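User: I'm curious whether this sequence folds into something compact or stays loose and floppy. Could you predict its structure so I can see for myself?
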Amino acid sequence: MKPEGSAHLAERGKILVIGKVSYGLEFSISEQFSLFAPEESVGGFTVGSDVKRVFSGMAGNVAYGLALLGSPPILVSQVGNDFDWFYRSHLEKHEVEMRLFIDPEKETACQYKITDAQEKVLEILQDNCYRFLAEGDLEEQFEPKMFLDLTVAFIGTGKVEADAKFISTIHGHNKSLPLIYSPDANVHELTKWRLSQIFEKITVLVCTEDELKLIEERMKASRDEILANSTRLKYVISILQRSKIIIHSKETRVKVSEGPAEEIFSDDGWQDAFRAGLIYGVSLKRPIDEAAKLGSALASYAVETHEYQQYSPSFEQVSLRAFEVKTISKNK
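Assistant: Here's the prediction. I'll summarize afterward.
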């Protein structure tokens, strides 16, 4: 594993995004599969469609959304020897600056989505080289003063050690920088000790309602108690569905409505679009409810496509939809 890129930041005021970029490989089989036949051989299947390659990964999705808003970020991730074949040119086209750890002997993380003849879906996650993300060193990618030029950082690696390590490194170099954190399918691995470490340094926690409930169990404290006991954590944002996003702070509880999508093709991937809009709003120092409106508006475009990184509104279009997003605030 070796770091890529050591040039100075091209411009001041960049957004930093750290986490997974991955490929999705989707195809169907013409038979029905069963994973619950221990005494039978599964045998082979005939592929009923061409393999479809899509771009995915929380950090990749967030970086794409930020680029659409006119603020292509600096993306830090762990990728493999196949990254240059497809993913690099896709991100370069959107002017995303990449500071990557590259493993020349392994492949980039991949998610297989297989649909059988009865429309049952099997998903297989293969982290490949991404398993070793926590071995990467941000200080090999950035000079110390570069951390001071950032406007906001988003960390959502899905690896507990990497989350804690990178959050600590960034906070150590720039204690006033807003840090936004999201678990990425790793909330079950977050212990009370690790969560306490993370909450000491982050500004905003964004997670699903189910993730938040598990965090409350691990911390043995309610979300309001977690906020009350934190000196730095200002907002906990809970995502239940597009029409029910709740911003918790020490003083208020704000409900954010959904953006007005014209037609819904997929209910996957919009959460990362919401994160991108929120991060962008925070980078502009907008009030948190206005930042969430941008997130909700961008999410409404994400559901209008079948793939994570294929929606393409302009910033002006997103801004117009944001005006239609409503918030209801209630004092605690």
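Summary: Residues 5-12 have pLDDT under 50 and may be disordered. The longest strand covers residues 22-28.
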